[in-house]
Amino acid sequence: MSFNKNELEDKAKEVVEKIKELVKEGNVTRVRVRKDEHVILNIPMTVGVVGTFIGAAAAPWALIIAAITTIGFDCTVEVEKKDGTVTTVYGK
After folding, report:
1. Where are the domains of the chain?
2. Burial 57-74 (b: 16+ CB within 10 A, else e)
């Protein structure tokens, strides 16, 4: 899969919007960005942190976008829910 820089940024923002929607539902405990078996970014979603994320474009959302655009879309973005299930937002 080949993207130019603008396409990568647009796709990354789309993935972040999907994550924000799940976080707003209130049952996400963690967000992970993986490249193969390596975890590139692992953000726990505590109650205080979630409020910050929902309120504005906080630095952690920028980190997710940066991680995705830096490694391209040969990665997986996952959200872990309170019940322990993992949902793949993007990737394999």
Report:
1. 5-90
2. eeebbeebbebbbebebe
CATH 3.30.1490 for domain 5-90: yes
In 3D, which of 86, 9, 3 has the Cα closest to residue 42?
A: 86
- What single-letter amino acid sits at 15? V
pTM check: above 0.85: no
Tokens of 11: 């796709």
Distance (Å) of CA 61 to CA 2, 11, 23, 68, 83:
23, 13, 12, 11, 23
Contact 33, 40 (CB under 8 A): yes
What pLDDT is stored for residue 85 in this prediction?
A: 93
